[in-house]
Amino acid sequence: WAGAVVYQIMLDRFNNGDLSNDDSNVQPEQKDAQAAGNYSEMPDWRHGGDLAGVRQRLGYLADLGVQVLWISPVFMHDGQYHGYCTTDPTTTDPGFGTPEELRGLVADAHRHGIAVVLDVVVNHLCDADTSYASPPGHAQCTAAKGLEYYDGSDESATLASSAAELNFSSSFFPPFRSQVFFNRCGKNSIADVSGEGPAAVFGDFHEGMFDYNTLNGDFQEILLNLHKYWLAYADVDGFRLDAAKHVTNDFLAYYSTEVRSYAESIGKANFFVIGEEASQGERMKAKALGRMFSDPADPQSHAKDVPEVVTTALERLKDAYMADKTFPAPGLTAVYNFNQSGSATHALRCEAPSTDIPKYFNGTARKTLLQQAVAQPLAEPDAHLWTVLELHDWPRFLGMMPQNATLLEAALGWLLTAPGAPMLYYGVEQGYNGQCPEAIEFTHKATRRSIRAMCDLSDKEDYGQHPDPLKRQDMFLSGPWRLGSAVSSVNDLARVGPPSNTDSVTWQEDLMLQTDQPMYQHAKRLIALRKSCPALARGSIAWHQAAHGACGLLAFSRFLPPADAAPLSGEAVASELVVIINPGGAGTVALEPMALHGDIKWTDDKWYVNVLNTTQRAQVRVTPDEGPFLVQYVELEPGQVMIFAEEGKVAPFDAALGVSLCRGGADGGADGGTDGGTGDPEAVW
């Protein structure tokens, strides 16, 4: 999983491959409004994307170079398009497709050399017809649950008076129809959800989303077994645990350990478990990751703020996780590296100085996270932590500067050459910017007013202010919510209006998948380079330069320590690369001799070539009086990326791809395997 290129799909918005299931599990409010011709709430409706649509586009994803596919939840839900309100985890949502279609999609993805990570909801269960018998005492209830969890105190009397009984409906998922399986503390505020106090763990997200009591051992076992079924049935390669911040860490240890152990028992070693730990503080993320601030071999040796209930769970699980040769630790395999991602995104969008990026790498937050991470084989500890520019809960990277394509090119240059496992949110390779077109093509006046009002909120970026639909545009021609792009030919297809019944076509013929436009080609060549260069996929980073201004020049090396630089094929492999990125804040930049830093042994008079333009060369000079310098006299245009590799350690320039790949160092599939450069997916899977 180290350095693997991940692609996130919001299932309802990616592609409608089966028109026959479009009316399945649609909420009554949507059906009634559609019948009346009122599309005012259309951006929040189901639009028809499904598993069949993803399956039809696997060739497109393989052409881009994707190694891991993250699919939003597929289980039966309450009819909301996003699928994060699960009602029955034993079957798939009929609007998304059948269990057989899910299994077929995964099998086809494997034939393309793509691993599949399935999004599962572990924090709550939804049921619109279930309610509280009386209002819960939210503050008292969450505080008491927190004292039980963090301090081990007996708060049964307080909980008896503050936790409310649930009136379960007849449709409530039967295996979970038990009061003790839910915290029953009532609805959180936005501040509760985004905070790090007990309410974030023990309160309900929203009305109708009932928060699981993840401290309950019977509940833990039932939910785990349900997901083990899907692991075996669909042959998925990993789970993404939605809202992992909002569950207890004893549950995360139990779930992660047991699901990895089960996967290995059926022949799937190194099963991936990543959690959405969206906390502001790095310590809260690190408590759920890998070692969990405990000595895996001796859980009684732990940090002071590790709850006793977690230590007890680790003692019980120790034999199982210590037997795992790939991951001998109890916690999540990975988390999102949100601090690295956030620092880079703000700097690359000209909202903060470029120095903020290396500042993160040299700071205590990163050290806190990496101390708990368990590295993948032959990789740095952060090489498998997911990094992002945008995702389904963040505004599009170009949302505030919708036509600045050069800025996105620079940002992709960073994402695909930086440490971590880069995650591409669907459509970023097509330049998506989340902007509405000028015309709203509905005849219903209230519809036009409502949608325009939402579109006018595109400049709001704070949590809860930027509308989710602007982050989640349709990527198929029949969709009613086709928003804009910084790529002019893609932007020409933007349309907000009544849906059509356009039949799906092959991905090569699909107008929404423009593979000849420059943003796609830019992403494709950088992905290919990353896959061919172990230093980019799993190496360390050394910073050479970062401008103090916003959108300023960035220069760094990615390198492998000598012991890890052995080539796979016997050829000389590029064990270090120098990356220079110009986001464009200072316009065109004339490069001058640049001091080189880091734990790299530079050799005097060695020549390097820009793999993206091999006519550009640079020379390393080392003198007795001064440290190493990279000498080059070229200019960098806004958005331009240069990647210098040692001459003789890259393949001849591939004119069709637009890059010279590293020789003999292809890192292959997400499971750490390699196809040896043959392109045969069966050699990986």
TrEMBL record:
SUPFAM superfamilies per record: (Trans)glycosidases
Annotated spans, Disordered: 18-42
SMART domains: Aamy
Domain of life assignment: Eukaryota
Polar residues biased stretches: 18-28
GO biological process terms on file: carbohydrate metabolic process
Ranges of residues in domain Glycosyl hydrolase family 13 catalytic: 8-452
Entry-linked InterPro entries: GH (IPR017853), GH13_cat_dom (IPR006047)
PANTHER family per record: ALPHA-AMYLASE FAMILY MEMBER (PTHR10357), PERIPLASMIC ALPHA-AMYLASE (PTHR10357:SF209)
Protein name in UniProt: Glycosyl hydrolase family 13 catalytic domain-containing protein
Species for this entry: Zooxanthella nutricula
Lineage, uppermost ranks: Eukaryota, Sar, Alveolata, Dinophyceae, Peridiniales
